[in-house]
Amino acid sequence: MPVATVTTSAAGSLALLKDEDRDVRVYALQYLLSIVPQFWAEISEELPFIESLADPQFSELPVESRPLAALLCSKVFFYLGERDEAVEFALRAGAAFEKEPYAEFKETIIAGCIDRAIADTNAGQTVDTRLEEIVDGVIRSGSTDGAKLAIGLALSLRRLSLIEGIYNASRASSEASSSRTSATGTLHDESLLRYILAETIGGAAGSDAWPDSFRRDLLQLLLKLFQLTTPTDYNSVTQLWVQLDDAAACGDGVVDLLETGGDHGHLEAYQIAFDVTDMAAQSFLERMRARIEERGWGPTGTKGTEEERTDLEEILNGSRIAELYINFLKKHNQTDMSILKVTKDSLEDRYSIYHSAITFTNAYAACGTTSDRFLRDNLDFLGRASNWAKFSATAALGLIHRGSYINGVRDLKPYLPGGSAPSKFSEGGALFALGLIYTGRKEGAEKELRKGLSEVNDPIVQHGAALGLGVSALATGDEDIYDELKNMLFQDNATSSEAAGYAMGLVNIGQPSERVLDEMISYAGETQHEKIVRGVVIGVALIMYGKRHAAAEVLQKFTTSNNAILRYGGMFVYALAYVGTGDNKVIKQLLHFAVSDVNDDVRRAAVIALGFVLFRNHTQVPRVVQLLAESYNPHVRHGATLALGISCAGTGLEAAIDLLEPMTSDPVDFVRQGAYIALAMILIQQTEAQAPKVTQIREMFAKVVTDKHEDPMARFGASLAQGIIDAGGRNMTISLATRAGTPDMKAIVGMVLFVQFWYWYPLAHFLGLTFSPTATIALDGKLRIPKVDFVSWAKPTIFDYPSTAKPVTEEKKKKAKAAVLSTTAKAQARAKTKKAEQGDAMETDDKPEAASTATAPKEKAKAEPAQSIVHNMSRITPSQLPFITGPYDPITPPPSTSTPAALVYPKKGRYLPVRSVGDSAAFAADKQADGRARVAWSGKVLILADSAPESAEGEYIELDESLWPRNVPTEVTAPAGVAAGVGAAAAGAESVPAAGASAADWNGEIPPPFEFEFED
Amino acid sequence: MTTTPAKDKETAVVETKAEEPKLEAAPVLTVEEEILTNIMLIGRAVATIEPRFTTRVLRTLTTLRKKLTRKALKEVLDRAFPKGSKTGQQLIASSLFALIPEAADEGMDVDAAPAAAADGTVAPVASTSKKYTPPVDSSNGDLIPEGVVYLRLLVLLAALDAGKVVEAGEFALETVEMVQAANRRTMDQIAAKIYFYLARAYELQDRLAELRPTLLAVRQTAKLRKDEVLEITVINLLLRSYLQSNLYDQADKLLSKIETPPSSNSAQTARWLFYVARLRAVQLNYAEAADHLLTAIRRAPKDEVAPGFVQIIHKFYIVTEMLTGRIPDRTMFRRPVLQQALLPYFQIVQAVRIGDVAAFQRAFTTHEQAFLADSTHFLILRLRHFVIRTALRTITLAYSRISLRDVCLKLGLDSEEDTEYIVAKAIKDRVIDATIDHKGGFMQSKVKKDLYETDEPQQQLAQRLKYALAMHNEALQGMRFAANVHRKDLETAADARERDREIAQLIQETEDDLDEL
């Protein structure tokens, strides 16, 4: 054995390793282990031999030393950079490996173990027990601050028991526990559970790869753990109920709270009911209502007071919130009529495309506000509608009156079949409009729509009826309606059957059954009409909504078809089945189609589908589509614009705007069209303070619309963009997710059908489904609207409405720029130099002027207060939500002084919220937490607990009864003038500054239904 | 210890590439200003996580090193740190700093003079260049660790130049500990330099072998962290150390077990090629050695930047080239930087070329010391056979038949029997194409084929093409493309479109007017 201080070779020890004496071999092995960092290169030559030493079947070494040989192998492989081999041998070394000091070697091996365990899990193999031991050790040693990491690891390994263990071992942070008065036993860190929930729903942690069974088990575990917490986090629990599609449990939960929860439970139940209407599909709500009815809390039940029962029923069937919204949207309508007027005046409405454009622009801008003022002011415009433009114009009424459940039928009565308007097109449009009004509420107008479908034997009327029926019976899975639509489909009429295809999908969203798919797909193969094929394949795509892997079979059929329309549908199956999952495999597939399909439509659809799949990771989208946006193929570019618009809608994402801006000057007209629409979607409700480019882009829309030499397609797009960016009287935003973070099915479906406007303009109305009001409404236990205020801890200008455009003065014809001759230029230059020479005197003249202009802006820029007061029932945009605290008793605004008012933190008022609304600490924390942390409140309806119920009645905001006549049967056709004056009183009581001339004009008096005699 | 002044230079200089001409053209900055600007650049590199800026700073290290004075360093250390930081003063107080002599030799005086003259004009210079603000580490309010390590590197260089190798070695070890503790990826490039000069300090003390375990550990860490620059630097140091101790076997095993490092740092790649070539030459694999050396020559820094390195690789190249049976190009010996250094080799080449054994022996004995110093001695010894072979070849070409005795005389060999053996061996090695008639005692040559009838020219062309293409590809990969440059083209395209539209509009309007008329 060389005992020299400096060893220069391991050859000696390697020779000893082959010695006949076992003890010598063991000694050599131990010595080699000590010198391996220096001589691994030499030792590696003997690897096969050392490997055989480690083999348990080989008896060259005593049993207890074999792990040492394995460890030596592992180390050599580690130095050679072969991590997988090193991990394998480290596992064989077992205890010998564990004794290693914690250094680079061990760290690398453990990382390798974790990677391997995750890879095995994802591949569906069982994880080696030795691997599991090491990984478990890592998770267990995760200290409390690393608990989230440990949870993430456990999620990747899909180990529910570990998750439960980590949670049970966690302790709530001291601040959180001190705020809880009912500290019984140990409190666990609930934020961990919320983190898992957000990861599961948000699909960010690779959850797209999870099998559905694991997702279900995980959610069930979360539900169990959440229900153990005190006080129960009902916000999360509600989300879980919806995610698990467990309507019965949700119904039970609400009833239990009502029966045993006391006053607070009562409020909590209402809050859950409101949240569910926001998050869940119609079928879920129906099952939940059935459950509640079973428990005796239905409208005709026996439990509780009648008032409570009707309240609950009204919340759950959506009419309460609809009533609140329609009041909000009407009262705060900030539509800028001058924009519409300029657009109308500059687009020649004798062309059908421009006529439609104006119709859509108005419909978007007035969505849900019930303001038909534009139409009343421009009857001549309506009169020029012809054919399908007439259909669209009538259907637009549906968007304008969206959510007007009581007055809806009355408003459209004149146009419905049998009404006073004789045109088939307006009849069809009216039926579609009915559907839009009663979106997801089929009982609202089922009678009229079915009549239109079956009794009138005209494809145009049937077209409208089918679309209307589809959208009103959204996701109900109603068999009768489906069969009726199917019969219509089989008539094989291009117009009506196409609509039937869409409608069949709408009715069965997310509920694939073999029969339905069979019928639809086989029919798509039989018919000769391309329109019908398209209708059916999009219908099938809608049925596969959110089905992920279950859609594989349909996808296989569609994407490998020779028929381009089927492949086109296949792209939308991808989009809907994997909506918001960000699944990497799907993205790869879509990118593949986007660049390699032979058909332009398919390529365009593939790129658009990317927007749907990635909408929850919207910041990635600009990067993903950047190259596609520069494609030589204009269809791909168009797709890229829409993908950006869809995924980044309402976010004002700068990267997306930067990508879209150059595309607004694309040489191809429809690419520009897409760019305008996408920009409007992204910049909706964005102020100049948030997105500095917004003003410039608005101006660009106006310029394109008024430019006579611009291509029609581009002008159409710019006009739509004007409507979108100011949607719903500037009180609505576009978002494909609910504020709770779940995908908003209604909005997603609306968006998918909206992009079909490429083929069929009337479908552009479906964009209305994606709009959601950005109101904050606080209600008390009796569902009254107390006057309370919130404080927005940001400068008012950041979230203000944009200023109304100045009425445009007669545009003077610009004189053509006089050509500048070179001689003139020279002369001017000469004059300039002369001036400069004369210089001094003039400059001194200039100076005081300059000084005064410099000081002027200072005076102008008044010190802006650092916060603003937001009243109940007024606009709070999603991006503003984190800045909101409250509610407080009504606040008198501080006198505007030149110095910014100090941050006065008002005291909590009489009303206390059931859900916590961010206080300033939470706000600061949120800002750092990459925006993923959400306020526990969904941000729409907030139930307040009255802390002084005995004291005098508080002040309440009254609702406009004309908009929502109570106790008046819907059959009554003309309730005109019933409630005159009430609305005016409401407006007077309201301290919101007058909401713009348009709203004021129509307040206080219920106008008769808008009627227009379309000529046939 | 085989280092000579020439090699010292090589070690020091090869590290850095030529300074960009742009920088030279820039207004003359004082040394202090330059260092402070460099620290700001490092700050920017850290802030933007963009290694480019650090590369730029390190590129100027050689030129900066020549200008370093104690005074300048002191002023920099005074100014570089944010207020309230004591790190700078600690450095000034350190024992190593005290050892740096005050502007010792003349060269430094010359450099210091303009700096002193500039003292009066410091204000205007400062106002024209950007004002210095120390990049601060947010965690402790001190200068960023990258900046500190850079300053330590400068102090280390000054100490090495002053010949305080022992102290410099200790100081470098201390710095290495700092680097390891900081463990920052933005520091990697500077860290590689620190390790390099640590090894240099040890080598000057003849203790490089002691550093081997440390270097091996560092290599492993660098590999795990994908720190390519450090990895190749350390591998080079290891190879150097092995070659120095004649541990060719260890060097070979190390080389065979690691992947070829990526060529991200061209100075270090050239170095790596050089060491590998030396190893291959020892292993009798001359062809590969010559290939590597040729690449190293092409990769090496400019002559004036690293003359030592350029000279030594040429020496090895010439010898290995001859060992593969080729005669190096004469132009090589005329380059100004090489002319003097290659003189001994020139004589050897001449002897080999004409196969003059006597001349070879003469040249060899005269310059033996020089060859020993260059460690080319053993290779040149091997060349002796080549001289004989070359001579044999010329003989076979000149005579179709010649008696072995005459061959013996011509080659100046000892006996006729020896001659027969040598000729037989040459025939077997296919150096010459001939037969020996043992009875007649003569050598019969065969008629040589025309080379151009074979595919040799084609192969040569293919080989050169392959080399050129590989170089082209590497150059392409090495280039940086600014992002979104093509956007500008898009803008102009949009403008052109706008113009077209305006013209169309104008034409239409005139037509309308004409219609009205």
What does this structure look like?
Helix content of chain A is 56%, strand content 3%. By secondary structure, chain A is mainly alpha-helical. Among the domains of chain A are: 10-171 and 190-220; 237-317; 318-437, no CATH class; 774-803 and 864-890 and 904-920 and 934-962, no CATH class. Chain A is globular, with a radius of gyration of 34 Å. Mean pLDDT of chain A is 78; it is low at 1-5, 174-185, 807-816, 839-861, 895-903, 918-936 and 968-1005. Chain B is flat, with a radius of gyration of 31 Å. With 517 residues, chain B is an all-alpha fold. Chain B has a three-stranded antiparallel β-sheet. Residues 1-26 and 104-129 of chain B have low confidence and may be disordered. Helices cover 70% and strands 2% of the residues of chain B. Chain A: One of its GO terms (molecular function) is enzyme regulator activity. Chain A: Residues 8-333 form the 26S proteasome non-ATPase regulatory subunit 1/RPN2 N-terminal domain. Chain A: Residues 834-849 have a biased composition (Basic and acidic residues). Chain A: Belongs to the proteasome subunit S1 family. Chain A: Residues 774-886 form the 26S proteasome regulatory subunit RPN2 C-terminal domain.
Record the SSE blueprint.
The complex is a heterodimer of chains A (1016) and B (517).
Chain A lengths: L10 H7 L4 H22 L3 H8 L11 H15 L2 H11 L1 H4 L5 H19 L6 H13 L5 H10 L3 H10 L4 H6 L10 H13 L9 H17 L5 H11 L2 H14 L1 H18 L2 H13 L11 H11 L2 H13 L5 H10 L5 H14 L7 H5 L1 H5 L3 H14 L7 H5 L11 H14 L8 H9 L4 H14 L6 H11 L4 H14 L6 H13 L3 H14 L8 H8 L4 H14 L6 H13 L3 H14 L7 H5 L8 H14 L6 H7 L8 H15 L10 H13 L5 H14 L1 H4 L1 E3 L10 H10 L16 E3 L1 E5 L9 E4 L3 H4 L22 H17 L1 H21 L7 E4 L2 E2 L8 E5 L22 E3 L6 H9 L12 E6 L35 H8 L7 H6 L14
Parallel strand pairs in A: 3-9
Antiparallel strand pairs in A: 1-2, 3-6, 4-5, 4-7, 8-9
Chain B lengths: L4 H10 L6 H5 L5 H18 L2 H9 L1 H7 L2 H10 L7 H7 L1 H5 L6 H14 L2 H7 L16 H17 L3 H18 L5 H17 L7 H13 L3 H17 L3 H10 L8 H17 L3 H14 L7 H17 L12 H4 L3 H12 L2 H10 L1 H7 L2 H22 L2 E3 H8 L4 H13 L5 E4 L4 E4 L10 H23 L7 H31 L1
Helix pairs in contact in B: 1-19, 3-4, 3-6, 6-7, 11-12, 11-13, 12-13, 13-15, 14-15, 15-16, 15-17, 17-18, 18-19, 19-24, 21-22, 21-24, 22-24, 25-26
